[in-house]
Acyl-CoA thioesterase
Amino acid sequence: MHDAPPREARLWEIVFPDDANHLGTLFGGRALAWMDKAAFIAATRYARHTVVTARSEQVDFHVPVRQGQLVELVARVVDVGRSSMQVEVELHTEDAHAGTRHLCTRGRFVMIALDANGRPAAVPSPAATT
């Protein structure tokens, strides 16, 4: 029996003026970049290989993220193939003073593990780590 590889990563960001549009809300592209970074970290920790993004799917923006808000990104490896991992990422805001939190954005990313030659590499199967 082996220790299960970590399936989750959490990152924190803050929305500065350079991250926001003329309405004072987070650029969608910046949100996607942060989400992709979180997916990358979760997949890398799970696979213990270099990983690349193969696809982003079904990214839903529910609530605007405002300048000055704290942002927590929670990335979880939710499905594993031979060399691919599906990572679900949630973006939550938190008001630093009130402590209120809201789920703002959710998306799914497909990450591929690569070997030293840049070819797909096998990742641990969930059955082998239990």
Remarks:
- The radius of gyration is 16 Å.
- Strands lie at 8-14, 50-61, 70-80, 84-94, 101-114.
- The chain has one domain: 8-129.
- The chain has a mean pLDDT of 94.
